[in-house]
Every structure is written in structure tokens, then in C-alpha cells.
Amino acid sequence: MLRIVTTAILIALTASAGATEAGWALLREGEHVVLLRNAMAPGASEPANFDIEKCSTQRRLSERGKLQARKMGALFAARAAPTERVLSSRYCRTLETARLAFGGAEEFAALDPPAADETARKQQIEAVMQEIRGYSGSGNFILVTHLETIQALTGQTAREGEAVIVAPEGDGLKVLGRIIFN
């Protein structure tokens, strides 16, 4: 039984490493869109006193998350993955991820977690899709956001600090690759 479990873990790790290498190959070409989930931040929801204007009332990056964000930036540079534009949710953990990895980002409210109101949610997702469809740079376009936003856009999940490489397809997005930053 131990042998089966060990083999399954090794297969999963090998597949993950292969997917990450394929993702880097895409990003070296440039001209790709990357949905990047914020780096590691403890907790699962915002505190009751949450205020978008005050970082002290929000979930923040852990020390491990700060290291992870720095590693992201270092790997983008080392892997020659050109970055042209970076947008971020207004939440402090996404802005800090963008600052530590890429030196900063433009705030873009549509990258905040999707609104509870269905009409507002659709408008928010459409605003993100317009940015993605309108991108025509030669480097990569990075959007630092949240799990819920990535799920709303792709129907897939992402780990903290995971990059999901996407391209517009019809009314939605097609996932082209992934990069896992541990």
C-alpha cells in the first residue's frame, strides 16, 4: 500500500513539474495573459471589520507569502518571461504580491472578489474580460487576483501563488497552462 501511495505522489509531482515547465515556455514567448492568485495569506475570509482602505483590517501575506511573492518575481526574471503590464485587485494582499513580485501594479477594482449581487458580478467579470480581450502588448499581462475571481473567469481553482495562463475563447477564457510557485 505504501508503494502505491508513494508512486501516486511521485506521478502527481512529475505532472505538476511538467505543467509548470510548459507554462514557463508559454511565458517566454510573451503576449500571454496570466491570472495570478495572491501569495500565501492566512485565513479563509476577511475579518468582520474589513475596510478596503485599511490594510490593518484585511488578511495579509504571511512571511512565507512574502517570500513566495519575491520568488515569483525572481523566477519571472530568471526565466526571461517578459512582463509588460500588471493589474491588481485593490486588496492589500494582492497589491503586496504585485509589489514584491513585479515592483507594483495598477489597481483594478474588477479584480476584487466577485460581488454577491449577480448584476454587479456580471459587470465585474465583463470588465476583466474587456481588459483581457483588449490587451495587445508584446510582454505578458499579469492580473493579480483572488481564487473566487479565477474561478468565475475559468471555472477552475488555483493555489495561493499559482499562475493560470489564459487566452480569450468565445465568451470566456481557455486555460493554456499553469505555473505553481511553492
UniProtKB/TrEMBL annotation:
Transmembrane segments: none annotated. It comes from the Bacteria. Keywords: Signal. Residues 1-17 form the signal peptide. This is Histidine phosphatase family protein. The lineage of its organism: Bacteria, Pseudomonadati, Pseudomonadota, Alphaproteobacteria, Hyphomicrobiales.
